[in-house]
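Example 9 (inverse folding). The structure is encoded as follows.
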């Protein structure tokens, strides 16, 4: 499935915005504001039921982003340094998590699990100027991958704002 996420979705206001499929059909709603310590975003279905909540906290010297489902921590997303660049890791609490690598500032990166690419994020591939695509392999956890992508998007925005 390919999803389309608006660039800088958090600037669209507290009323939220929608993640659509590649044909423009609404699939999910993003509600909330850019991450603040302890607060964050809600990913909802089209009826307004929360599928996941994203929060941020400081641990050691870096931020940790937590994805909650049904009120419980489900996954942690951390930025790591590997070799000469950065990657992101998603810890799923004992299950095989995701490693995210690529050219983040260009919105060209991919998710791997067990050394297999299971999702690809691309702005160039789809040719959209106001959004980017997230292509997820069948059988993967769309909600976790989309939430992680939203986290990375917000981190990129914050980095660019500070430059």
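The amino acid assigned to each position is listed next.
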């Amino acid at each position: 499935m390919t999803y389309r996420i608006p660039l800088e979705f958090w600037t669209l206001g507290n009323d939220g915005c929608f993640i659509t499929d590649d044909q423009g059909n609404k699939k999910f709603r993003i509600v909330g504001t850019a991450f603040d310590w302890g607060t964050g975003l809600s990913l909802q279905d089209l009826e307004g039921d929360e599928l996941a909540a994203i929060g941020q906290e400081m641990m050691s010297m870096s931020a940790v982003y937590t994805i909650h489902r049904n009120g419980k921590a489900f996954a942690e997303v951390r930025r790591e340094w590997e070799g000469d660049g950065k990657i992101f890791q998603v810890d799923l609490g004992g299950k095989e998590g995701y490693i995210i690598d690529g050219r983040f500032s260009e919105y060209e990166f991919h998710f791997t699990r067990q050394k297999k690419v299971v999702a690809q994020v691309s702005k160039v591939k789809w040719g959209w100027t106001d959004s980017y695509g997230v292509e997820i392999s069948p059988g993967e956890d769309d909600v976790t991958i989309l939430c992680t992508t939203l986290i990375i998007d917000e981190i990129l925005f914050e980095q660019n704002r500070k430059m």
